[in-house]
Design a protein that fits this description.
33% of the residues lie in helices and 27% in strands. It contains five helices and nine strands; from the N terminus they run E-E-E-E-E-E-E-E-E-H-H-H-H-H. A five-stranded mixed sheet has the order 2-1-9-3-6, with no helix packed on it. It has a four-stranded antiparallel sheet with strand order 5-4-7-8. By secondary structure, the protein is α+β, with helices and mostly antiparallel strands.
Length: 211
Amino acid sequence: MAFERLQRRGKGISVCAGLLVSLTSGCATLTVTSKPSGAEVVLAIPGQEAGKVIGKTPLNQDLAELKKYTNKNTIVLSIKRSGFITQSFVVPNLGGGQLEIDASLQPLGADDASSINLAVRLILEAERQIIDRNFKEALKTLEKAKATNPFIAAAHMFEGMIYLLQNEKEKAREALFRALALDPQDTEVRSMLTDAGGTPTDTGGGRGKRK
């Protein structure tokens, strides 16, 4: 699984699988680096599938210039390079300070197609279990799907749906923010986030650790 690092002048938050946890006071300056370098940094634009390329890594960007593209002060960034798995980040809170993103891009392998196919089969099985309201087994099936391939947004979306149906809104927000990071254009996920009480200042479940 790819590992990314978010850092703000003396404080760090570590996160996995593409979910960027927001900082308490937000950020105004963005620095994006990647290994390997030369990856495109793409800003998701609601209603536009392709998004807006704002530069290549290493990149320094004034976040104030991006606010006109935000949805209630939230932005979604994807880091893309040919031959590598795309990494995506949700930044739910813009403000003052400095934000640094360091993405370690993982190469595409021969096993990716088979892992996607297996994950999709598991997700479809989980959907049937949800219809039967067998939520416990559906969550187990979705865990298998995510372990097979953590980059399919639908697995995280269905996980969030289950927690929302069980009125576990904090867990629902965690899963739905992960889904949104992987598929920023999914309007259904955005709607469920609203139902789960998601706001621009949510941290997506607080999976990061402050240092």
